[in-house]
Amino acid sequence: MQFSSYKTEGFYDEAFDDHGSVRPGYHQVKVKIEELSEGGLRLRQIAAEGALLNLGVTFDVYGSHSGKEHIFPFDIIPRIIDVADWIRIEQGLRQRVEALNEFLKDIYSDQKIIKDGILPTELIYSSKGFLPQCIGLKPPKGIWCHISGIDLVRNSDGVLYVLEDNLRCPSGVSYVLNNRQVMKQTFPELFEACHVRPIDDYPNRLLDTLRHLFDLPDNPTVAILTPGIHNSAYFEHSFLAQQMGIELVEGRDLVYMDGSLKMRTPRGFRRVDVIYRRINDEYLDPSVFRPDSVLGVNGLMRAYREGKVALANAPGTGVADDKAVYAYVPKIIKYYSGEDPILSNVPTYSCWEPSDCEYVLANLDKLVVKSVHESGGYGMLVGQHASKKEIEEFSWRIRENPRSYIAQPTLALSRVSTIIDDHLEGRHVDLRPFILY
Question: Helices 173-186 & 202-211, crossing angle to 10 degrees?
Answer without folding.
Answer: 150
